[in-house]
Amino acid sequence: MIALRAGEPAAAEDADPRRWWGLVVIAMAQLMVVLDATIVNIALPSAQHDLGISDGNRQWVVTAYTLGFGGLLLLGGRVADLVGRKRTFVIGLIGFAGASAIGGAATTSGMLFGARALQGSFAAVLAPSALSLLTITFTDPRERGKAFGVYGAVAGSGSAIGFLAGGLLTQYLDWRWCLYVNVPVAIVAVVGALTVLRDRPGHAGARLDVLGVLLGCGGLVALVYGFSEAQPRGWADPVVLALFAVGAVLLAVFVWWQSRVPRPLLPLHILQDRIRAGCFLTMSLAVFSVFGVSLLLTFCLQVVLGYSPLRTGLGYLPMTLASVVASTQISARLLPRVAPRMLMAPGTMLTATGMALLTRITVDSAYATEILPGLVLMGLGMGLTFMPIYATATAGVAPHESGVTSAAVSTSQQVGGSVGTALLNTLATTSGTAYLAAHLHDPAERATVVRQGTVHGFTVALWWAAGVMLLAGLAAILMVEAKPAAHGPAPVALPQDARRC
Known about the structure:
This protein is mainly α. Helices cover 75% and strands 0% of the residues. It has one domain: Growth Hormone, Chain: A.
C-alpha cells in the first residue's frame, strides 16, 4: 500500500524557494511532449503534399512518434533514476529540440519519419524525468496538490492545445513550424532547468537491466506497432497477429525476468501495489477513450462539417479551459481532503456523459448546441480524473524509483491511447462502411450518404468509448482506496522489504 510516516512532510523552511519557477519549466516541457503527439495531425495534409507521402505511409508521421515514445518510456524512467532526473531532463530537452529541427527541415518522407521517431525517443527520456522532478520538488501536501493540478491540466489539455497550435501554425505560417516551434520552447526550458531545478543524485551502484530493456521495450513496441498496423492491414492479417503474439510473449518473459533479476528495470512491487495498479489501469482506460474520440471528432469536424484547421482547433478551446479549471480549482483543492477515487470516479462519469452527448452530432449540427456541451463535460471530467491519477500513482515511492514509476504512468497513458485510437478508428470505419452499403441506393446521393455514414461510424465509436470510460471509473472505485493523507507529501521511502531492486 502507499503509506506515509508521521512527520515526513518537509518543513516550510526546507522547501526549495524556486520550486514554483521549477514548476513552470516542468510544465513547459510536459506541454511540448504532450501536444507534439497531436500538433502535426492538422498539418499532415500539407506535409503529405510537400514531401509526396503516399496515403498508405502518411500514418507513420504519427505512429513513429508513438512507437518511440511508448516503447522506450520504461528505459527513460530507469535512466533518470540511475543518472539523475535533472541531467536526463536537460538531455531530453536538447535531443527533442534537435529532432524537431530535423523534422522541420525534412526534404523526404523518410527523413520526417525518422525525425518523428527520434522525437518520441527523447520524449521517453523527458516525460518521466519531468514527472519525477515534480514529485521530489514539492513536499508540502497543499503545495503538492496545486503543483499536480497544474501538471494534470497541462497533460490533460495538451492534445487540444496541439490541435489549436497546429491549426494556427499551418494556416498562417507553414506546416514545418509545427516542428520548429519546439526549438525555442526547449531552449527556454533548458535555461530554466539549469537555473531553478534541483535534484537528488542518481542511485549509486545501480546497474541498468539490459535484458529487461530489450524485453520490455521490444514487447511494447511490438504491441504498439501491431495496433498501428491493424487498421490498414486488418485485425486478422498474419503480420498483425504475429506482432501481437511477439509482444505478448516478450512482455510475459519481461515480467518473469523482472521477478528474478537483482536490479530490475521495473520493480514489480510498483505494480503489485493495489492503489498504484488501479491508477495505471484507470489511466489506460480513460486515455483509451479520450485519444480515440479526439482523433475521430477532429476528422468529423473537418470532413463532415467543413471546419477549417484553425476553426477546428478553436473548437477544442472550451474543453481545454474546462480541463484546466477542473484540475487547478477543483481537483487540487479537494485532493488533500478526499480520497482520490472520489474525484476520479465522478470525473470518468462526466467524461462518459460528454461523449454520450456528442452522439447527437449530425451532418448539419450546430456547434453551440450539439458539440459544445459534450466538449465542456469531457474537459471537466478529464481535469477531475487525470490530476489525482498523477498525484496518487507517484506518491510513496522511494526516491531512486520515482523516475521508473513516473515512466510507468506515462507508459499506461501512451499504450492506452495507441490501443484506443486503433480500436475506435476501426469501429468507426467498419460501421461507416456498413452504413454506406445499406443506405446507398442512388449514386447521385453518394456524397450525402458518405457524410451520414461517417457520422454514424463516429457515434458507434463514441458509445464504445463512453462504455470504456465507465470501466475506468469502476477500476478507480474498486482499486484506488487511498485516503487523502496517502498522497499529500512528496514521495517517501517504502518499508525496507519493499525496496529490494
